[in-house]
Amino acid sequence: MAGVQVLEFGFGYPPRLFSITRGETEYSFTAVPLGGFVKLLGEEDPAHPRSLARQPAGVRAIILSSGALMNALLPVFIFSITAAIPQPAILGDVRVTAVAPGSPAEQAGVRPGDVIEEVNGQKVNRDSELRYLIRLSLGSPVEFRVRREGQTQVMRDIMPRFNPPPGQGAIGIAIRTGDIQVETVAPGSPASRESGLRAGDLVIQVNGRAVSTDRDPATYLAEHRRDSPGRPVEFLVERDGRLQTVAVPLPAGEAPLASEALGVTLAPARLQQTMVAKPVWEAVPYAVKRSLEMLVLVRNEISGWFVGIGVPQFAGPVGIAQITGEVASLGGLYALLELTALLSISMAFFNILPIPMLDGGRLLFVVLEVVRRGKRISPQREGMVHMVGFAVLLALIVVVSYFDVLRIVRGESLLR
């Protein structure tokens, strides 16, 4: 559109495997499948009238920013599709099952048994949504709207931490979607005779430990016999909208301490399996919002490197291929599309950074030209900077690919 001649449109990075010429442009297919490139006439030399360097600074800035812009727009398209496709989901109350002492959640007044209904005004129906919103808010205060014993309360200024103590998580709570319910209580059993545990009670904790829907409750009881022999088993339950502690005495003998031995059976409750999808007029705004949130997650990940919660995880073409295969096998097409969107957002972020050879590095020279009131840095110097950057990038790809291969040989994965 600006009249700049496109010499080559490359899929991946050199060395070249083969190419096809259409019009004045050569379409090349190269050996390193990590992104792509467009070679324009006169990128540093303004001698030719159709060269990139001959264009005004504003036109060059638009052209140099367009690659990162397309990387940022692709996730909007992908998230629109994934939001509109019906997906199975398990929904229910997001219940707090434990609160770490001294954590931001405890300081804000969050308690075991609370049902988190909203985070910063956004409704949550599953624990994965809550964890996602917390990751988005690292370092910034969040507001919870919770339901406690039938009353709604607001917890403000809960600060998610970048570097929490081990096992606590960003705000110091354990959560689950849905509840574990006392299904039956055998007449005359320890559960009914001594404690009055009732069918329909919602179990929050056993002996102060959060009860999870993916763990057999009998394991909590076996640990109790080992760690606290002779002491009653304490159930924190919700009954008729109110929390209370019920102490159930241990049965006599050395028989395995299963939940049935106490005369009680537990089962998941308040879970709804449904298909979730958005109409097109909601999917597109949602996709824009989700793409912006991905940029925030990338920013938070990088910020975490500087506060000691992790180290950068690099992957070259081999590593990306490994991750793609694992995600496709574990999560199918939906997960693969989500990964594609994440990779595209990451490429948009890094490609616009002022690094030589990348678009952001070239854009930096345009900015310097504007700051210097139209006085350009010589094409030879600019070309040398980008050539050195390209050589460093290729060397980095080789080194990272070497460690990718070593990781695969050792049976390791970047996903774990």
Keywords:
six-stranded antiparallel beta sheet; about 40% helix; alpha+beta; about 425 residues
Structural description of this entry:
The structure is a single chain. By secondary structure, the protein is of the alpha+beta class. The chain is built from nine helices and 16 strands. Strands 4, 5, 6, 7, 8 and 9 form a six-stranded antiparallel beta sheet that branches. Strands 10, 11, 12, 13, 14 and 15 form a six-stranded antiparallel beta sheet that branches. A hairpin with a 2-residue loop joins strand 11 and strand 12. The longest helix is centred in the C-terminal third of the chain and has 35 residues. The model has no long low-confidence stretch (mean pLDDT 83).
Q: What's the rounded overall pLDDT mean?
A: 83
Q: From N to C, what is the helix and strand string? A: EEHEEHEEHEEEEHEEHEEEEHHHH
N-to-C span: 46 Å
Approximately how much beta-strand content do the residues carry?
25-35%
Oligomeric organization of the protein chains: single chain
Unreliable runs, pLDDT <50, ≥5 residues? none
Helix/strand-derived class? Answer: alpha+beta
Number of strands: 16
Characterize the main sheet. Answer: 6 strands, antiparallel
State the shape. Answer: elongated
Write a concise synopsis of the structure shown:
It is built from nine helices and 16 strands. It is an alpha+beta fold and 416 residues long.
Topology diagram in text:
Elements: E1 6-22, E2 25-40, H1 57-84, E3 87-92, E4 94-99, H2 104-108, E5 115-119, E6 122-123, H3 127-136, E7 142-148, E8 151-158, E9 173-177, E10 179-185, H4 190-195, E11 202-206, E12 209-210, H5 217-227, E13 233-239, E14 242-248, E15 264-269, E16 271-276, H6 280-306, H7 317-351, H8 359-371, H9 379-409
Antiparallel strand pairs: 1-2, 3-16, 4-5, 4-9, 5-6, 5-7, 7-8, 10-11, 10-15, 11-12, 11-13, 13-14
Helix pairs in contact: 1-6, 1-7, 1-8, 6-7, 7-9
